[in-house]
Amino acid sequence: MKYELKRLGVASVTKIYAVIGLVIGIIYGGIIFLMTLLGSISAASFGGDSGTGGLMIAVIGAVLAVFALIACVVIYALIGAIASLLYNAFAKTIGGIELELAEKK
Fold it and tell me: Which of 9, 16, 40, 53 places its Cα 20 to 30 Å from the Cα of 63?
């Protein structure tokens, strides 16, 4: 059986991309937070300002981790929306992707 994918739902593609961005943002945010936390610990242990400096680095790391999470979700959702809109425009003009499906045995 041959089918043609004529149109993508922009909202559904955007939601899927946003969830993918959320997962990637959690990974990036976790890495950023761990790196800044290690930096604040090493700054405090190697003779830096033991109180305020290390704490400030940890707070900056937490803020950057949250920003990375939000930025990834927004950027991935925008990419999904733009990609699905472009696919719909091109599929209308030159035709969609052809799929050949077979029944499972």
Answer: 16
Residue 77's Cβ-side half-sphere holds a number of Cα atoms within 13 Å equal to 13
How confident is the model over 24-33, as pLDDT tens digits? 999 999 999 9
At 71, phi and psi to the nearest 5?
A: -65, -40
Q: 102 forms bridges with which residues in the sheet?
A: none
Residue 5: strand, helix, or coil: strand
Say how many residues make up the chain.
105
Q: Which pLDDT tens digit goes with each residue over 40-96?
A: 777 766 665 556 667 777 788 889 999 999 999 999 999 999 999 999 999 999 999
Distance from C-alpha of 75 to C-alpha of 78, rounded to nearest angstrom? 5
Residue in 30, 13, 5 with CA at minimum distance from that of residue 82: 13
